[in-house]
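Notes to self, Acetyltransferase (GNAT) domain-containing protein:
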Amino acid sequence: MESISYRELKKSEIRITLFANFNRYQDVKKCWRNENGEWILKDIAFTEQWGSDEYKCLIKCLKNTIKTGGVVVGAFNNNELVGFASVESQFFGSQKEYLQLSSIHISYENRSKGIGKKIFSLVCKKAEYMGAQSLYISAHSSQESQAFYKAMNCIEAVEYNTKLVDEEPCDCQLEYRLLKII
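result:
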């Protein structure tokens, strides 16, 4: 039986060996697109498979998250990383109510086991403790990713972060109100 443990990661732990067996694979068939103010599920097929360049970039980003006061939470099965999520520390929005959920990923072989839900709940608690009213998520537009966020009760962001929209124009801009932690 698998025993998943969860904990906040230290900057010194975030190195390439942490991701040695992490499989960021996704076979996308359909994606959501906003056309003329209406969300439409379109046939957009591609495969994502992270390689060494993506992991090097990820490590740099996650270390910066911790260095600047954010948090990274990992999920482990027998000391092997099977999931992680990160929340940035810089508030934004007209009321400075948002903190960004900058990443949440579950290794391919470990999806649909409740790990994503648990790690999402943990980072929500961390963000609430940091003073956020809502988590802001510039989320992958794939049908599967959006189904996860919908199951977590995320909604379309009331206020879009234009910097994040410009960086990833195909992402869906979502938020999760922290007053109702799952």
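- The chain has a mean pLDDT of 94.
- Residues 74 and 135 are 18 Å apart (CA to CA).
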